[in-house]
Automatic annotation (TrEMBL):
Record bears the keyword Cell cycle: no
Organism: Paenibacillus alvei (Bacillus alvei)
A GO MF term: hydrolase activity
Keyword Hydrolase: yes
Keywords associated with the record: Hydrolase
InterPro entries (UniProt xref): 6-hairpin_glycosidase_sf, 6hp_glycosidase-like_sf, GH125
Domain of life: Bacteria
Protein name, per record: Glycoside hydrolase family 125 protein
Length: 441
């Protein structure tokens, strides 16, 4: 991603919502004895609002990913999700978050297969030569199952926190219809899907093999994905964490459809799809590991092939409790967690300064700040949560912000100095620890 050189989109400054400034004032009291951590929090907590958020004249909100002039469905949700708990009594936050939800539904109705969009129909693209059905609105059309799950996650959490139902309009209903239709189609990708994606003159992880169709898959009940949350191509196209996320999203959409739209027929249709996907996860996504016992695989093709790993991007196997699929004390999750935080995971790295999960998206030996934040958010105990905060604080390369990946031996070597999602996830972790009183001393 670092190679892109188009001019940045202008993001006009606006006053921070009062609820956000109150959080930072509270941090000044609770973190006064840890000046570096306080600085990091005060930089990272408002970073999305200060640098990537644009309020549009139509009442919607556009959120840049940071160093790229486009909006990812997934990233934009995680960039603002830490503000949702403060939105109930803050009209400015409601305008920002509610507007982002409406923007998501607008985009999904344009193209449910796209992962990133332009602010206007300006025909900007990551690669103008991608062989797929592009639109002037679409920045990139890598189909990632998790993308639309994040859209539903934000809408559901916002609804539950604020009680506001104005987001549940006809565009929302039609977007839900498109989501379910795509997921049902992609249960039988080779037989029914119109989606193809090929990129030329690029690394293998940036394109889909087999003339853009992907490697063969068997019917499992799960739904197909072309790419991972890292924007890298899947090896085997049934992503277990993404299918878990789809199960959670279907449960949330059933509740929205029942109480927001009174559509029991649609509820029943989604319940059936949820059961089929979940059955596939449990039947094809569990592996008996000789050391760790029953664990979840990262991807499978339904023919008995799978990859045992975890990637730093969310959804990941590490993030299973975070996305709401299973509790942190679930036995298979606990076994899986032990595996992915060990050297058995090919993307777990240990260095002189840090240890944690990286990604094939960055070089070997690079740990991701997002993975450390997620490890803290899903920690089994307070000691692990605090250890992750300490590691994050020690590896910012004195920039005052989080990054994408950094060399575990030397955090001064890192990728993406401006990565708002990483900043937001870190802020979410620190706030959680503050609320539990873990940072009072």
């Amino acid at each position: 991603m670092e190679q892109f050189r188009l001019p940045k989109i202008d993001v006009p400054a606006f006053d921070l919502p009062k609820a956000v400034t109150r959080v930072m004032e509270e941090a000044e009291q609770k973190l006064a004895h840890r000046p570096k951590l306080l600085k990091l929090f005060k930089n990272c907590f408002p970073n999305t609002l200060e640098t990537t958020t644009k309020l549009l004249d139509d009442g919607t909100t556009f959120v840049l990913t940071g160093d790229i002039p486009a909006m990812w469905l997934r990233d934009s949700v995680e960039q603002v999700i830490h503000y949702v708990p403060f939105a109930k009594d803050d009209k400015d936050l409601q305008r920002i978050i509610g507007g982002l939800i409406k923007r998501h539904m607008f985009y999904i109705n344009i193209d449910p297969y796209a992962n990133a969009f332009n602010e206007t129909a300006n025909d900007w693209h990551w690669d103008a030569n991608d062989q797929t059905e592009m639109s002037p609105w679409v920045w990139e059309r890598k189909y990632e199952l998790d993308s639309m799950c994040f859209s539903i996650r934000l809408a559901y959490m916002y609804w539950k926190e604020t009680g506001r139902t104005d987001i549940f309009d006809t565009n929302f209903k039609s977007a839900m219809r498109k989501i379910v239709d795509v997921w049902k189609t992609e249960q039988r990708h080779f037989e029914q899907s119109p989606y193809r994606f090929t990129r030329v003159n690029c690394p293998a992880i940036d394109t889909i093999r087999n003339d853009g169709k992907g490697m063969p898959v068997n019917y499992t009940g799960m739904t197909w994905s072309g790419f991972r949350p890292s924007d890298d191509a899947c090896d085997f196209h049934y992503s277990i964490p993404s299918n878990m996320f789809a199960v959670v999203s279907l449960r949330q959409m059933q509740e929205i459809s029942k109480y927001g739209f009174r559509d029991e027929e649609f509820v029943s249709e989604m319940a059936k799809l949820e059961e089929e996907i979940n059955h596939g996860i449990q039947l094809y996504g569990v592996h008996n590991h000789p050391t760790f016992g029953k664990i979840y695989v990262y991807e499978t093709d339904g023919f008995g092939n799978s990859c045992l790993l975890d990637d730093a991007g969310t959804p990941s196997l590490l993030s299973i409790p975070y996305i709401g699929y299973a509790a942190a004390d679930d036995s298979i999750y606990q076994n899986t967690r032990k595996f992915i935080l060990s050297k058995e995971n090919p993307y777990y790295f240990e260095g002189k300064v840090a240890k944690g999960i990286g990604s094939p998206h960055t070089p070997d030996g690079y740990v991701w700040h997002m993975a450390l934040s997620m490890q803290g958010l899903t920690a089994a105990n307070d000691e692990e949560m605090l250890a992750m905060i300490d590691m994050l604080e020690a590896t910012d390369a004195d920039t005052g912000f989080m990054h994408e990946g950094f060399l575990a031996d030397d955090p001064n070597v890192f990728t993406r100095p401006w990565f708002a999602w990483s900043n937001s996830l870190f802020a979410q972790l620190v706030w959680k620890a503050m609320q539990r009183g873990l940072l009072d001393k």
